[in-house]
Amino acid sequence: MVRAGIVCHKIYYENELIERALKERGLEVKRLDPRKVLVEVGRKEVLLDGSWMGFDVVLSRVERGVLLEGYRLLKHFEAVGIPVINKADAVLLCQDKFLTYVALRREGVKVPRTFLAYEKEPLNFVDLEEAVFKPVVGGKGMGVRKGRVNEVDLDAMGSCVQEFLPIGGRDSRCLVVGGEVVGAIERIARPGEWRTNIALGAVACPYRVDRELEELCLKCCEVVGLDVAGVDVGEVDGERYVFEVNPTPLFKGLMQACRINPAEKIADLVVKRCRG
Ligand SMILES: Nc1ncnc2c1ncn2[C@@H]1O[C@H](COP(=O)(O)OP(=O)(O)O)[C@@H](O)[C@H]1O
Ligand SMILES: [Mg+2]
To answer: H/E element holding 270?
Structure first.
């Protein structure tokens, strides 16, 4: 029997769906909490619940809360030759917004004009009227604020300070699995809110992806090296800007809006990869 490991710390609805889809395909599935498994350098099997187990394929659902622990475990699996979906380096890169912007911009993908700052003082030299502040590592819109450039406190771990793009409280989220956009939504911010995160009350509507958006999303995934990703794109005057490429996308909103189950696509990809 093919054994698949899902590296995750929390039990999300999405992870349960993926687990179910894998089991339906005949795989044995184990959750690998990176804080709970014992790893020996160079050894294929890891100790889980008191016994050493080997895996044929590993899927990353590493959350921000266990980023480094998850990264180490994925790196280990890669090093002993196990196929890993969402490679460790790509997961680490994309949980860091600054590194993501650097990588995308280098390959010609438009991103908001962005500064990296740890302290306020240097921001006096930044020529932005209205700025968006976001923790370098963050999600769900938490800690994403707007204000005059030197009036907002910075995150201790570093903040991306960006131009505010007038996207009108709307953006698109495309879910990419194995080089294919499997679903997309438009996210419309809650009245009075400018951030379009579902976690902040935005509503999701099905979204028709044109060729240009599809190519942009696939390019983003290729640049950062992700197999599974949620790509957030804002549009201003016909120009598209990438806000983030999420390496552990939640997709409940997209599922409900588009009436598809992305877990099936992810499971198909996992099966394909372990066959080489
Ligand atoms: N530079 C920006 N201009 C306008 N809106 C932005 C900008 N950056 C982020 N937003 C809004 O805030 C939301 C959250 O920002 P994002 O960078 O995706 O952080 P998070 O990881 O917390 O979701 C985006 O989906 C978008 O609606
Ligand atoms: Mg986001």
So the answer is: helix 262-274
